[in-house]
Design goal:
The complex is a heterotrimer.
Chain A (H helix, E strand, L loop, with lengths): L1 H12 L21 E3 L9 H5 L5 E5 L3 E7 L8 H5 L5 E3 L7 E2 L7 E7 L1 E2 L6 E2 L4 H8 L4 H7 L3 H10 L4
Antiparallel strand pairs in A: 1-4, 2-3, 3-6, 7-8
Chain B lengths: L1 H8 L3 E6 L5 H11 L11 E2 L8 E5 L7 H10 L5 E5 L1 H5 L21 E3 L6 H18 L1
Parallel strand pairs in B: 1-2, 1-3, 3-4, 4-5
Chain C lengths: L2 H11 L4 H22 L9 H9 L12 H20 L16 H21 L3 H36 L7 H11 L9 H15 L10 H4 L10 H25 L7 H24 L5 H25 L2
Helix pairs in contact in C: 1-4, 2-4, 2-10, 2-11, 3-10, 4-5, 4-10, 5-6, 6-8, 6-12, 8-10, 8-12, 10-11
The chains are: A alpha+beta, B alpha/beta, C mainly alpha.
Chain lengths: ~170, ~140, ~325
Amino acid sequence: MAFLKILLDNLRKGPATEAFPFGEATTPDAYRGKVTFDETSCVGCNMCEHVCAGGAIRFSEKEDGLHFLIWHNTCISCGLCAHYCPTKAIKLSNNWHLSHLQEEKYEQVDHAVVPYRECTSCGKRLQPGGPMLHQLAFKGANPRSERLMNMCPDCRRKVSYIGEAV
Amino acid sequence: MDFLSKAARKSPWLYRINAGSCNGCDVELATTACIPRYDVERLGCQYCGSPKHADIVLITGPLTARVKDKVLRVYDEIPDPKVTVAIGVCPISGGVFRESYAIEGPIDRYLPVDVNVPGCPPRPQAIIEGIAKAIEIWAKRA
Amino acid sequence: MTTETLWTLATVLVFPGGLFALVLGLALKGVERRAIARLQRRIGPPLVQPFYDLLKLMRKRTLIPDTANAFVFLAVPVAGLASMAVAAGMIPIAGFFEPSPLLGNLVVLFYLISIPAVSLMLAGSASGSPYGAIGFSREMAIVLAYEGPILLSLVSVALYAGALTGQPVLLNLTEIVRYQQQHGAFLFDPWMWPALLTYLCFIPANLGIAPFDIPEAESEILEGPLVEYSGPPLGLMKMMSVTKAVVVLGLGIALFFPNGPAGLAGLLVFIIKCLVLVLAVSLLKAAVGRMRIDQAVLFYLKWPELLGFAGLALAIARF
């Protein structure tokens, strides 16, 4: 007769149903949902593309910079990209409102351009390396490293060995 | 007729097709149906055993080559009007199985899909959100 | 056509058969679904959900499988619903309604009550689906198991009421009800308790309620005999099953506890009694799982059968 007690307890406690879809749903902060990308801190290492299990991330090099593309419809929210990203430019938000109509299937894409910069010394095209990388590598502001960061490898070597003369 | 379609909007019966899914999405669907916290019955939904009773069909899995013919046959058993919902990234794009030799999907190559609910698996609330979108379409068709 | 024929037709088609029984049955079904949801800590569907479901089914396409016998497949739901409408027209509501004597007595009612089971069996076998065939065999097994106890229960009541009124056997339901209204319900008469218990055991098996919903198990055999039905024929099947619920509960009320005030209040009391029974049934449905078919058959051949014989012995001893 234990089950009768459970049933009557259930009746007494009332429904345990969430208000959603008529109200707000609770979402844990750590929920792995839609991927967000911050192009200012991306260093273009392509690690996220390499580890992506679903093949959702594509990088392509174009004239104006490095093009980042993610199709959320094949992202499995595994979080490998966020785990391996050295500068935490790619993160998983807890946004799970991803359902959409069939017409919008191929619009579930986030696109970002990580622009190339020019070497401050010779004007050569430069792989991006944002302030986030600088912060990680040198643990704080340092005028010398900040200056070197904006140069191409060749100019950087010259400056490092020969000195400020160049 | 208008009266009938208004009533039909309140009574979408659900049917599940597993097109070679890993069962992750199926577990979430069972959760959506069976756990008091995500009660789909209050939307008037009811999981039915036979495809011939269904209105909204939920498809999981990437449509493997072996299961393709069976899925298409079961899909044809569902009487019109019907609404198709793809649950999980597999039926939508193939997910981690994309471009595998064993996969015939994505499923919209063979079936007219109406709503997509991506996720691996999508959480029950996301499935309910997808079902709510499907009910909107169902209301127009019925 | 005489007025009496017309009146009988009206009782079968509108009240209390046909329309009234259908509406009451659908409402009771809604209450049942809601009650089960509450017992499981869910909110549950709105109370009018069965009406929506039925109207929805009228909008769907009808599919007839190639393997099916189309005539039997489509005729069977109509036959089942018609028999239940007639049966509902034969249920007296104390103080409010007395069925037309043209319709027949308890024996006819007993046969009418078994027609839905037969139509489910025919539906299962005519659909040409293996699941339908399994549903057919299960339905057959469970009908064979519960038909004995219900017959014993009805016969006990008829004999007992006959003994009390000085006849060998009383088969007229109206008179059974009238006797109980004058001399107290059989519910409070210990001589009738075995027959009452037998009848209560019969209710879940006949209405397809857990733990005896084996022929229509939706998770194992895809709703068995209903597997190939779609659209309006499925709606007719659903109508048949909800009307059957009203008939079976109404017959139980008429046989054992028909007492109620005269006039419209009598109808109200009848509906309240139905509601109480439905709530009890939903408690059962929420509490237990499904039995295997052999367990269910053995159960019915053991306890309700024994109770039925005990009831019969008591009724005969009363002479």
